[in-house]
């Protein structure tokens, strides 16, 4: 056993030495006095989501339902996307003409390879939820989203978020995802802006764990 691991375990044992052997985590009630719903006006919640998502260096646009196909087309054209990854459940009306569509599948052998995803120019998806409090987009591998790899390997992610999918607070999001996680066991991905990290000298590097560029279309 390494010295570092032994030191970590020693500190854990020291911190929990007064806990009875028979006690289980569920035996100790935890005070959960945080807010579970946001009583702000609906328009304010959506506007806050747009502002905070943009603060993460994501490009955010508000579009109408009828204007969504055109907004998708314009965003892809401005980005120079020629090879576009799409999940199997993406609405056909969202897919513009003039791009090579790389459609992922769900059957054996039908999924795009990691190399195909990496060589694409971007991916277009929907989402499960948007969180106004943190400017976070939530994916749950559901309709119009596909498997997790689709949004991790392409360098550009264009995501469609409907106003009715935006919740105010993080606890609201977790409550809404309970059945997806507990009932269906699907993977959940939280996206707060483009992928980025910093080294020990705080030099920001983008695109390490996902796309360097995130663009969001809020439909309402």
From TrEMBL:
One Pfam family here: LUD_dom
Gene3D superfamilies: NagB/RpiA/CoA transferase-like
Start and end residues of each LUD domain: 110-219
Sequence intervals crossing the membrane: none
Stretches for region Disordered: 1-45
Alphabetized SUPFAM superfamilies for the sequence: NagB/RpiA/CoA transferase-like (SSF100950)
InterPro entries tied to this protein: FTHF_cligase-like_sf, LUD_dom, NagB/RpiA_transferase-like
Protein name stated in the entry: Lactate utilization protein C
Lineage summary: Bacteria, Bacillati, Actinomycetota, Rubrobacteria, Rubrobacterales
